[in-house]
Specification:
about 100 residues; alpha+beta; four-stranded mixed sheet; two-stranded antiparallel sheet; 3 helices; about 20% strand; globular
Length: about 100
Amino acid sequence: MPRQVELLWWEGCPSSEEAHELVRRLMANAGMDPQSLRSVEIATDDAASRAGFVGSPTIRVDGHDIQPPEDSEPPGLTCRVYHLRDGRISPLPDPEDIKEALVR
């Protein structure tokens, strides 16, 4: 059964387009159809609460966040901050985290 890959995003976050390109490229590299990426715009605080959206971009594979947020992070319309494997802070997750989630 094919994996479901979702990218939840908010238009106020400047890294959304780059996140889409990154995930589609990594999906293609993993032998998946990049056009099957489900892009979900989160436009209201209510939608953020319903989706458990803690910031843009949020990438989920089969419903699981590739880098689960801390329990204390509240849902809302904000840009997300990721920690790369080398310790740096980034507006996008580490590509290796995405790759691992796609093949898990």
